[in-house]
Amino acid sequence: MLNSRTPLLQRILALLAVVVIVKVTVAVVLGYREYIPPDFNSDFLHGRESYFAHDYQWAFYPHIISGPVTLILGLILISNRFRTRFPQWHRRLGRVQVFCVLLLVSPSGLWMAWYAAPGPVAGISFAILSVLTGACVVLGWQAAVKRRFAIHRVWMGRCFVLLCSAVVLRVVGGLGSVGGVQSDWYDPLASWASWVVPLVAFEMRGWRQFHHSIRPAQNSTT
Q: Where do the domains of the chain lie?
């Protein structure tokens, strides 16, 4: 009975995750009216007026434009149904995803990390996140070129999990605001938890799937 309910539960959780990602992404995009033109009384841009017009804006605007694009593309590209029914579109959109992540999201995120409002601990987290995201998309692209599609899907899955850290961070931040959390450690901790926890969960899920896949083979040899 438990095994029969597991696929249904996984589908429900996946649907809820999609709803949260889309809802947060739409909310973020609707908030861009505070950035064009820049409103330095807004939460994110508060205190950034002194350096925004110099170099920060050249990372900020590409990041906020490409970020939502990669999230929506990621939702489409991880769909097995879309991949099997529209393989050519999967490849085309995949190229767009690689371009956006490698040339826009990761470099701009790395640049913005040095200006992280919560401080250097959060900045280090965002810098590592940017590098790992770019590395995952490169390794995923290389695997696809070599037609190692199973490995390609794993690396691009990791990339998407890391991209979703932006969604997780806003959810965690919202929970902190609702809960009235007022602590200097909360935002730096949230910056690390937003990508480390989902990535660990992804790796644990992959390990369980691998373990279950080799168990029948082991049983057949005994």
A: 27-213
Please identify which residue in the block is written with the tokens 């029969």. 4
Task: Tell me which amino acid residue 105 is.
Answer: V
Note whether 56 and 48 are within 8 A (CB): yes
Q: In whole angstroms, what is the distance from residue 127 CA to residue 77 CA?
A: 25
* pLDDT tens figures, 91-150: 999 999 999 999 999 999 999 999 999 999 999 999 999 999 999 999 999 999 999 999
Tokens of 13: 């959780």
Nearest of 189, 198, 203, 124 to residue 168 by alpha carbon: 198
DSSP state, residue 33: G
Q: Angle between the 120-145 and 87-100 helix axes, to the nearest 10 degrees?
A: 140
The answer for residues whose C-beta is within 8 angstroms of residue 67's C-beta and 6 or more apart is: 28, 105, 163, 166
CA distances from 123 to 84, 112, 184 (A): 39, 8, 14
Rounded distance between C-alpha atoms, residue 43 and residue 58, angstroms: 19
Query: Is this model's pTM higher than 0.85 or not?
Result: yes
- Residue 206 tokens read as 């992959």
Separation of alpha carbons 214 and 86, rounded Å: 30
Helix, strand or coil, per DSSP, at residue 141: helix
How many other CB atoms are found less than 10 A from the CB of residue 166? Answer: 24
Q: How far apart are CA 23 and CA 75, in angstroms?
A: 13
> Are residues 55 and 115 in contact, defined by beta-carbon separation less than 8 angstroms?
no
